[in-house]
Amino acid sequence: MTTAHTVTGLTNGQADTFTVRAVNVAGESAASSGVVATPVGAPGAPNLTAATPGDGQVALTWAAPSSNGGSAITAYRVFDDGAQVHQPPNGSTLSHTVTGLTNGEASTFTVRAVNALDESEDSNQRSATPSALPPTPTFVDVGVTHPFFDEIEWMASEGISAGFQPGPTYQPGAAVSRQAMSAFMYRLAGSPTFPDPPAATFGDVSASNTSFTEIEWMASEGITTGTPASPKPLYKPSAPVGRSAMSAFMYRLAGEPDFTPSQVTFGDVATTHPFYEPIEWMASEGITTGTAASPKPLYKPASAVSRGAMSAFMQRLADGSGVGV
After folding, report:
1. What is the domain extent for residue 299?
2. Cα–Cα distance for residue pair 6/307, rounded to 1 Å
3. Structure pTM?
4. Residue 33 in domain
């Protein structure tokens, strides 16, 4: 007679109530008293949000996984190029500074979450190169203490942005125009050879526009179709880029990878939102974490993207797994 059974296909972290009944030729018994149990498994992977280099060290910060697997996170394990270098003492620690590194030598970091049963898969990767000397700012309005200093310096070093003269200034608080966005994306893609078309695609971007080539390249790649108008669609080059449109541009630049959202990450982007899929893709790639709020962070899809925030989005897009740019 079997007196044990394993129930499978349950959701980790979700409690279930179980009862048993005995059966003989005359019928079956009343249900036993209920027993409540919650299945557990490995937690989800954390999101490594920053790797900030210093003198012989790199400061890491990460966000907790969306699922703890049904058991509280007890620790996080930090890895440098695949080798464990630290295990913070408890599950509430979301940062660590890796010391003893060689200045000028790049390291790639990942983090795993640990619960009572198992550990997660690796987080997304972040690379950083410690440096003994404080960097010299490229732009006069972006000092070393600016929250996007590293990302903006990366934009300069990669030739994605030269800023504005005199200065040069970067104007990190200004909104990114759609014209500037086209130039950023074209340069991020490696400034591919692209012959200007014989006729302009958009009614408001003529061949005399300083970003004509970049905007036409965006159109040829299917990254933008503009706004319907007659006789030609409009690109609106001077208009600020909204966070919704930015998500679509980045998703298309990445080649529109196969992606099926499994959840709603942001409290202000429902499944019915026209840009739900590219916004969720950005979240899954660690390109955006949104603005902290309860019970869910906010993406603020209608807001304009600042040039400072755009530098972070661009670098994370370039660093992302399988992005292909």
Report:
1. 149-319
2. 55
3. 0.61
4. no
